[in-house]
């Protein structure tokens, strides 16, 4: 099943894509227009996969708002292509983004690839703004745009001393999407310092679903920022590079989150998928054995796929904030709080969901 | 022009005068090696024909310059006006707001007039060199070619010199052998008191080979003889003589001053007055070097002086004038020509206009056009180019200030108001806007129009594609690229400059942006023989390989070390084979610092095996303290993401139990910001749009 198959009109649909690396959040408002928050792009060999573009093309629908929450490669890689697709509406980005004064290329190929995608995304946004000034949305706390039947509100940055912010995560822009009584909080990669800097009137943020900030890292978790209600649907994406997020040990992000909600929906596990230029299936069970799980944490496997396009979670809401439908891509997993003590940490903590 | 007193040359002149006078609509082609005296003979012929009641029209525009075509048109008009064959119509050619094609048609009409063409003798000096073949001037070479073709195809009498690339309709060929003689060298009046002894010395040293020497060669030999023994120059080429003279002058302070005088005079494009010599500092030279300038570097044409085109080129190559000195000299000349054209009688409107064009030319490079008039959009194009270059500077400033570039943009906009079909102006209007990241919606149509008007121009294609890449409009860039390849008939290994002008720039920017697939396609288009000869293209291949490798292996492998793609396959580079305590290296891992978090280093590592076995890829986390114990270089806190490491495992013996004694050591690769000498530079700032407010 594809993430976009079987979408009903008249509802609010939230799609979160996130393979091992990269994140795209799409919200389809009831009249059929899409709000796209960040756009991952993956290239392996000569194949380029951009889920936002693929979704719009498959449905022959248009974007009505595009937001780049911050120009890190895992969020910005497919922005330029996305803006080339059919669509019209606000294009949001916090400014100014601090670009290097020059573009001296380093020894590090990965850094060069990342810088190139950042430049692409920002160039595409600025060109869009200049081509059609009505699309310019320099996001600041409280700015709101109407897209079809929904309101899209920027929560950060507050607009002061932005030039001093060199950490792009600190500049990240969470947005709140509202339709009737339904409130979706899309947390971007904002870390705790950013959440704590939000004005008193903004937090705590009431929401029916939360795309958890910064891949559920410990450093992005601020308990006081949230006022979850209803199904307490929290979704996040993995980050397979470096120290890998989310982390499942005691005191780390997942454990903290499971102190607030009973389940965390993960679009995939934080292990790299690409190998030797081809998409390959990895031994998911073997990879999961490497996870150091905190006590009372269990990973439920939904489908055990490692295909890059299978990493998604989809939720559908009515205008009263009721979760109507929840679907998981075959690679998604659910992390749950389990009060039953387990003796064999590996075999019994991993169970297939039926 | 005064002919050197060489009997054979005078005989040629006599015969040619009779021949031309007797054959209406004839075509004569003076051929000979460089500096054989073709131009001199052409000018002397003009004077003779004027005495035969013909109307010689000398067309000798400066070769390969942006305004060459315009100057040639004005020279035709001036010649006809001088003879009263046309009246106020000359103004039609120099009216500003009139397209090039209309002006060309006007001149075609004059030359096609049956009543006029009986009398006209077109004396075209080196028309084959009028259109620039390479460089920034090449795009406007079309206008120079238009005029050359028009003049060569007309039914007037025509005498042309030099190499002609196109077929000529049954020309009478007049060969000019290189020939000087001892008698000329012995003529004291020709050389003056100061140089006469050196001329005699030359005659004595290389007398027998004088027959193979042109007058220009002989002049250079005399100048050289004043400084060194010229016996060894028996078979030296003209270029060799000029190079040696230039180098000889550089050896002394007075010689250096002479070089500067030479270089300044080389900026003049038409014969000039004696008084300009003082303006460029001739008075500061001693009598020997004054005479070298006057009699060896300059020719006399009637009462004026002129430098041979080849000596002008030599001086340009010498680059002794810095930008400020160049500007000062052009200012001097611009002011002088302004005074001169102001002083010319209105009746000599042709000469007046020609001088006015020279004043505009020098004012362009002086950065001070002021209220001077231009007659052709080409002149505005030259001005725009000069302003753009001044804004960019040298070495090129990749992010010139918008305020400095704007005057160039304004000039190109004006050129387009004069001539909407000026592809050069369209392109550079767009290019300069692109340089400062001005509104791309207004920029793009001008790039497109330039291509429409001159589809074969490689630069127009290259800059349009890189413009689209810079905007991250990759689908459009792809289309423009494919169209360019088709339009230019690529691949074509016989045109290596196309790859230099197109592929290098496109691929370089794509590589910078990490667009590996597109870059691969661009580089794959380069024929192997071109690639082999181009270090820049090869360097880009290396970097592209590294990027592809990094992307394909993703988080599994150490990032490739760009200077040495696949570096782990060749290493280790830093780890010693044996430690001082006798332990030997058992195995090693290549690693990259992926992230530093919470006093831990997160590494991607590749365990490297001998031979061609693929490395085993994994991740490794090292606490700062542990890393510091292992490191033979820097401390963990000094590292940053993206640094490359070598981790070696050392044992006392290779026996099985030795593993217990194993120790790990780390070497850290130094930070080497990649400065590949061969990698073509990026220009302009590829992030210029992203930086816009």
Protein topology:
The complex is a heterodimer of chains A (354) and B (693).
Chain A: E1 12-17, E2 24-28, E3 34-37, E4 42-44, E5 47-49, H1 51-59, E6 63-68, H2 73-76, H3 79-83, E7 91-93, H4 109-131, E8 136-138, E9 144-147, E10 150-154, E11 175-179, E12 182-186, H5 192-196, E13 205-211, E14 226-236, H6 253-257, E15 263-266, E16 274-275, E17 278-279, H7 284-289, E18 297-301, E19 312-317, E20 323-328, E21 333-337, E22 350-352
Parallel strand pairs in A: 3-6, 6-7, 7-8, 12-13, 13-14, 14-15, 18-22
Antiparallel strand pairs in A: 1-2, 1-19, 2-3, 4-5, 9-10, 10-11, 11-12, 15-21, 16-17, 18-21, 19-20
Chain B: H1 7-22, E1 27-32, H2 38-50, E2 55-59, H3 68-82, H4 90-94, H5 100-112, H6 114-117, E3 120-124, H7 141-153, E4 157-161, E5 172-176, H8 182-186, H9 188-206, H10 215-225, H11 238-249, H12 253-265, H13 275-279, H14 287-297, E6 298-301, E7 304-307, H15 309-318, H16 323-343, H17 349-366, H18 377-392, H19 402-418, H20 423-435, H21 440-453, H22 458-470, H23 474-488, H24 496-513, H25 516-524, H26 528-533, H27 535-553, H28 567-570, E8 584-597, E9 600-608, E10 616-623, H29 624-630, E11 644-651, E12 663-668
Parallel strand pairs in B: 1-4, 1-5, 2-3, 3-4
Antiparallel strand pairs in B: 6-7, 8-9, 8-11, 9-10, 11-12
Helix pairs in contact in B: 1-2, 3-7, 3-17, 5-7, 9-10, 9-14, 10-11, 10-14, 11-15, 12-14, 12-15, 16-17, 17-18, 18-19, 18-20, 19-20, 20-21, 21-22, 22-23, 22-24, 24-25, 24-27, 25-27
């Amino acid at each position: 099943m594809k993430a976009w198959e079987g979408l009903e009109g008249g509802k609010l649909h939230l799609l979160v894509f996130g393979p091992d690396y990269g994140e795209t959040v799409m919200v389809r408002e009831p009249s059929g227009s899409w709000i796209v928050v960040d756009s991952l792009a993956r290239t392996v060999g000569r194949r380029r996969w951009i889920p936002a573009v693929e979704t719009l093309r498959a449905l022959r629908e248009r974007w009505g708002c595009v937001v780049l929450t911050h120009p890190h490669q895992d969020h910005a890689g497919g922005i330029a292509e996305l803006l080339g697709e059919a669509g019209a509406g606000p294009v949001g980005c916090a400014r100014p983004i601090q670009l290097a004064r020059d573009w001296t290329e380093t020894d590090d190929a990965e850094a060069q690839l990342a810088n190139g995608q950042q430049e692409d995304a920002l160039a595409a946004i600025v060109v869009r703004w200049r081509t059609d000034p009505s699309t310019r949305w320099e996001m600041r706390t409280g700015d709101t745009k109407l897209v079809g039947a929904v309101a899209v509100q920027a929560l950060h940055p507050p607009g002061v001393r932005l030039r001093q912010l060199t950490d792009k995560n600190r500049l990240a822009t969470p947005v709140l999407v509202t339709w009737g009584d339904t409130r979706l909080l899309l947390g971007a990669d904002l870390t705790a310092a950013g959440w704590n800097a939000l004005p008193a009137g903004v937090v705590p943020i009431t929401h029916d679903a939360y795309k958890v900030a910064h891949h559920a890292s410990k450093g992005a978790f601020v308990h006081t920022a949230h006022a979850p209600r209803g199904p307490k649907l929290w979704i996040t994406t993995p980050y397979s590079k470096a120290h890998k997020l989310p982390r499942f040990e005691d005191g780390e992000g997942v454990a903290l989150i499971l102190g607030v909600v009973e389940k965390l929906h993960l679009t995939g596990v934080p292990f790299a998928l690409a190998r030797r230029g081809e998409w390959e299936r990895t031994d998911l069970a073997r990879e999961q054995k490497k996870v150091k799980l905190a006590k009372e944490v269990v990973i439920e496997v939904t489908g055990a796929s490692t295909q890059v396009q299978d990493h998604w979670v989809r939720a559908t809401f009515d205008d009263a904030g009721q979760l109507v439908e929840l679907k998981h891509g075959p690679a998604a997993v659910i992390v749950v709080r389990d009060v039953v003590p387990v003796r064999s940490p590996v075999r019994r903590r991993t169970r297939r969901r039926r | 022009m005064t002919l050197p007193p060489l009997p054979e040359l005078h005989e040629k002149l006599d015969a040619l005068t009779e021949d031309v006078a007797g054959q209406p609509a004839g075509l004569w082609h003076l051929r000979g090696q460089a500096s054989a005296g073709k131009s001199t003979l052409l000018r002397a012929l003009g004077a003779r024909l004027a005495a035969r009641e013909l109307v010689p029209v000398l067309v000798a525009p400066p070769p390969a310059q942006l305004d060459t075509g315009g100057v040639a048109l004005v020279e035709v008009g001036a010649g006809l006006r001088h003879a009263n064959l046309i009246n106020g119509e000359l103004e039609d050619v120099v009216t500003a707001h009139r397209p090039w094609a209309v002006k060309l048609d006007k001149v075609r009409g004059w030359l096609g007039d049956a009543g006029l063409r009986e009398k006209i003798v077109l004396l075209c000096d080196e028309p084959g060199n009028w259109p620039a073949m390479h460089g920034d001037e090449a795009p406007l070479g079309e206008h120079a070619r238009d005029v050359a073709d028009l003049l060569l195809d007309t039914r007037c009498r025509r005498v042309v010199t030099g190499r002609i690339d196109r077929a000529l309709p049954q020309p009478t060929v007049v060969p000019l052998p290189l020939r000087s003689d001892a008698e000329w060298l012995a003529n004291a009046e020709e050389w003056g008191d100061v140089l006469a002894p050196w001329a005699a010395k030359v005659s004595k040293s290389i007398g027998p080979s004088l027959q193979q020497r042109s007058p220009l060669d002989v002049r250079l030999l005399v100048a050289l003889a004043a400084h060194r023994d010229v016996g060894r120059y028996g078979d030296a080429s003209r270029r060799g003589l000029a190079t040696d003279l230039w180098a000889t002058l550089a050896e002394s302070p007075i010689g250096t001053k002479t070089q500067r005088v030479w270089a300044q005079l080389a900026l003049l494009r038409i014969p000039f007055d004696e008084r300009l010599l003082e303006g460029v500092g001739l008075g500061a030279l001693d009598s020997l070097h004054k005479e070298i300038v006057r009699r060896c570097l300059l020719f006399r044409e009637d009462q004026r002086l002129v430098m041979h085109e080849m000596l002008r080129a030599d001086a340009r190559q010498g680059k002794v004038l810095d930008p400020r000195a160049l500007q000062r000299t052009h200012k001097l000349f611009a002011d002088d020509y302004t005074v001169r054209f102001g002083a010319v009688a209105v009746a000599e409107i042709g000469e007046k206009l020609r001088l006015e064009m020279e004043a505009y030319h020098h004012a362009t490079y002086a950065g001070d056009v002021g209220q001077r008039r231009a007659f052709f959009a080409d002149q505005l194009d030259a001005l725009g180019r000069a302003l753009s270059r001044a804004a960019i500077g040298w070495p090129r400033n990749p992010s010139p200030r918008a305020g400095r570039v704007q005057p160039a943009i304004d000039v190109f906009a004006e050129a387009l108001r004069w001539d909407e079909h000026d592809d050069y102006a369209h392109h550079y209007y767009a290019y300069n806007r692109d340089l400062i990241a001005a509104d791309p919606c207004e920029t793009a149509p001008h790039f497109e129009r330039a291509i429409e008007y001159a589809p074969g121009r490689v630069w127009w294609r290259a800059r349009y594609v890189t413009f689209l890449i810079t905007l991250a409009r990759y689908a459009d860039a792809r289309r423009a690229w494919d169209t360019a390849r088709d339009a230019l008939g690529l691949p074509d290994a016989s045109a290596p400059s196309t790859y230099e002008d197109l592929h290098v720039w496109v691929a370089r920017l794509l590589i910078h942006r990490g667009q590996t697939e597109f870059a691969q396609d661009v580089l794959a288009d380069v024929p192997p023989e071109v690639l082999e000869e181009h270090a820049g293209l090869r360097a880009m291949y290396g970097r592209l390989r590294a990027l592809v490798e990094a992307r394909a292996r993703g988080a599994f492998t150490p990032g490739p070390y760009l200077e040495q793609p696949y570096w782990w396959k060749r290493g280790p580079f830093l780890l010693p084979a044996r430690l001082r305590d006798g332990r030997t290296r058992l195995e090693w891992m290549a690693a990259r610092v992926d992230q530093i978090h919470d006093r831990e280093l997160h590494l991607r590592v590749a365990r490297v095996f001998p031979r061609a076995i693929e490395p085993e890829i994994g991740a490794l986390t090292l606490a700062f303290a542990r890393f510091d114990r292992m490191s033979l270089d820097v401390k963990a806190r000094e590292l940053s993401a993206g640094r490359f490491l070598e981790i070696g495992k050392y044992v006392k013996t290779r026996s099985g139990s030795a593993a217990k004694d194993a120790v790990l050591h780390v070497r850290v690769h130094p930070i080497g910001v990649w400065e590949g000498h061969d990698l073509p530079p990026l220009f302009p700032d590829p992030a210029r749009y992203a930086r816009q407010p």
